[in-house]
Specification:
The protein has 133 residues and is mainly alpha-helical. The protein has five helices and no strands. The chain has a domain of 91 residues.
Length: 133
């Protein structure tokens, strides 16, 4: 949170780290991006630059979305009538998921999926890298 003393160092580091993952030509985040209609919206929110007026909100929203998707997948996969979609050798951190997804989204071969719903696309991307046998 930005206050009289400035941005907390941990949050600033997170903003700088996420910004370094995406080309500096990333478009500014818009309030509509936060509706996350498409995977491209998730990419936009998660690849925000520190200079963006909505940078802090976007980083927090990105990590919150990824956390929710991960928890949802684990909870549903633990049920008796559901098979997991993504099977990494170890549970990834939120940061690892965001890093992976942004890298995956940059591949031109995956651009066709960026108009799909973000949760489906995030899980699809993960299933390509860590398929369940």
């Amino acid at each position: 949170m930005i206050g009289r003393t400035g941005m907390r160092p941990r949050r600033m580091l997170a903003l700088l780290a996420v910004a370094g993952l995406w080309p500096m030509t990333a478009a500014a985040v818009t309030p509509q991006d936060f509706e996350l209609e498409t995977a491209q919206d998730l990419v936009d929110v998660c690849s925000v630059t520190p200079e963006d007026p909505l940078a802090e909100q976007a980083v927090n929203y990105c990590y919150g979305f990824v956390t929710g998707a991960m928890h949802y997948h684990r909870a549903v996969a633990a049920g008796p009538d559901y098979r997991p979609i993504v099977c990494p050798p170890e549970p990834p951190t939120n940061r690892e998921v965001v890093d992976f997804f942004l890298e995956w989204a940059q591949d031109p071969a995956n651009s066709q999926y960026l108009s799909e719903p973000p949760v489906e696309t995030l899980l699809f991307a993960g299933s390509q890298e860590f398929p369940c046998e």
